[in-house]
Amino acid sequence: MKLLVITASTRPGRVGPTIADWFVKEATEHSGFDVEVADLAEINLPMFDEPAHPATGKYVHQHTKEWSALVDSADAFVFVMPEYNHSYTAPLKNAIDYLNREWAYKPVGFVSYGGVSGGLRAVQAIKPVVSALRMTAVVDAVTIPMVRTMVDDDGFHPSDVVASSVKIMLDELVKVGRALAGVRAAG
After folding, report:
1. Which of 71, 90, 124, 129 has the most crowded CB, counting CB atoms within 10 A?
2. Domains in the chain: boundaries
């Protein structure tokens, strides 16, 4: 199965890529998935600019066609996401809204980070959105509170609790991903 890890922060000075690099290494060592990375800062999608509704799949812009192919090829997703003002980032919402069927019947996990809450409010805010697209949010997650205390020039240094949560979430993504592959095949 293919896991697409999406880095949701795009601002200068962000820690998202550092956390994503750590998570991708852990996910690769887990061996439940082939791992691919999508950094929304590098993809740089404009604000949704397709003339037809995403449910039609009638894309006219090359950036949408490329984004569609990348998301469609994945069997599961992990959003590496900060919390901004008790919610998730605008670039992540924009990237999600570009597509429709490409997300359906695939599991999604969350690596959230922030201050005291560790991004939990952002995760709760995005769950109705992914549910509306027929994605299945796994319960197990990687929550990183006080993220700045775990990042330095040498990278991300998770606490034992944060580090141990990765395997639990990935195991759940594998289980749910296998089950949903059957749903997609039957559809």
Report:
1. 71
2. 2-186
pLDDT of 143 over the 90 cut = yes
| 55-61 long-range contacts, CB within 8 A, separation 24+ | 55/100, 55/101, 57/100, 57/101
Q: Assign 45 to helix, strand or coil.
A: coil
pLDDT at residue number 73: 98
Block residue for tokens 């293919």: 2
Residue 7 structure tokens: 């880095």
Task: State pTM to two decimals.
Answer: 0.97
Q: 32 pLDDT exceeds 90?
A: yes
Asked if residues 82 and 114 have their Cβ atoms less than 8 Å apart, the reply is: yes
| CATH fold for the domain made of 2-186 | Rossmann fold (3.40.50)
CB atoms within 10 A of CB 86: 12
Q: Quick check: 187 pLDDT over 90? A: no
Strands 2-7 and 76-82: parallel
